[in-house]
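Lab channel / #folding
Pinned by the channel admin:
"Please post every new chain as: sequence first, then the structure tokens as a reply. Keep commentary short and put observations after the output so the thread stays searchable."

First post following the new format, from NK:
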Amino acid sequence: MKENSGKPTDLRSQRRREQRRLLWVVAGFLVAGGSIAIWLVYGPSAVPLGLTCLFAGAGTLGLLWLILTLIEKLVDK
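Reply from TO:
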């Protein structure tokens, strides 16, 4: 069992780490799951174009996360 060292728990940094992890999981699932679905439905020749679109979607997701993170930092100041 983990010993309590008496240090206060930083819940904000834990939340930020968890949100970052979830962002990577969602983006990875979008790209990997989407490319597998494209491969199964349309065949292997459609995967390169599909990956391009999936990476654009994951990039948009990352951009939205970045904007919201910056807004959060501005509000906290």
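NK: The mean pLDDT is 90.
TO: also worth noting, The chain has two helices and no strands.
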